[in-house]
Amino acid sequence: MHTVWKGSISFGLVNIPVKLHTATENKDIKLRQIHKECHTPISYQKTCPGCDKEVKNEDIVKAYEYEKNKFVVLDEEDLEKLKKEKEDKSMEIIDFVKLDEIDPIYFEKSYFLAPDTGGGKAYILLRQALEDSGKIGVAKIMIRSKEQLAVVRVYENTLLMETIHFPDEVRNAGDVAVPEKQNVTKKELDTALMLIKQLTTTFDPEKYNDDYRTALMDLIEEKRTGKGTVETKDAKKQEASNVTDLMSALQASIDKTKKKPKPKTTTRKKSTAQIKKNA
Prior knowledge:
The chain has helices at 76-86, 120-133, 186-199, 211-225, 235-257, 265-278; strands at 3-11, 14-22, 47-48, 53-54, 62-67, 70-74, 90-97, 107-115, 136-143, 146-155, 158-164. 33% of the residues lie in helices and 27% in strands. By secondary structure, it is an alpha+beta fold. The chain has a seven-stranded mixed beta barrel. A two-stranded antiparallel sheet has the order 3-4. It has a domain at 3-24 and 64-169: Ku70, Chain: A, Domain 2 (Beta Barrel). A hairpin with a 2-residue loop joins strand 1 and strand 2.
C-alpha cells in the first residue's frame, strides 16, 4: 500500500513513528473526451486570454485575488518557507473526545495509520488505550502544504486517521432556505414512524452497491464486444511521426554535442595555394 506521509504521532511524552496510507479510493469511471470527427483525444493547453497565447509552467505564478482583478503575488520561496515552518512531520494529539460528539458533516478523508520502524509497541498502546477509554484523539497534521484538523480512532484492528473540516469550512445551515413549521397530523407522523421502523436494520455496507457504475461498465463492455468501438484516425501514422520526431530530436542533440575537428595547417595552406592558383 502506497505511503502518502511519514512521521509520528505524539500524545503526552509518547511518540509513535507511523506511516499514512489512503484508506478509501474513488472508483468513478473516467470518460475521455475525443473529437467526434477523427476520434482523437482532446488536449488542453494553458492560455492567457489577456495575451491570447499559450503560457508555459515557468511563466505562471501564484496569487491571491483580494478584489476583482487585484492580486497579491506569492513567491514560491515565501510559500516554501511557510510550509517548512509548519511541516515538522509530527501529528500531535491535542484532545481526546467521544466520537458521537463530532457531527458527520465535519469528516473528510480517511487514512490508515501503520507503525513505522520501532513504533509497534507504542502503536498497540495507543490503540488499546483508545479502545478501553471509548475516546478518539483530535490532532493537527500538515499534508500537501495544507494544515488539517484530524481525528485518530480505532477501525477494526488498525488506527485510522480521518481529516476533518475546520469550523469555518462548514457552511451555515441557516443560509439554506427551508420551510417553516407545518401542520403535520398525528396520523401522518405515525405512518412515517411506522415506515422507519419497518426499514430499520443493522448497517451492513456490503449490501450497498454502485448500480450506476455497474450498469455503465456493462454498457461499455457490450459496446466493446459489439460494434461500438472507434479508433483514432491515422493512429499508426501519428505514432510513426512521433517516433520520427523523437529520433530527429535525439540526432540533433548528438550532432550538437559533437566537437568540430580543428582544421589542419597543411589544409589551410593548400587551400590558400589553390585560391591563388585559381585567381
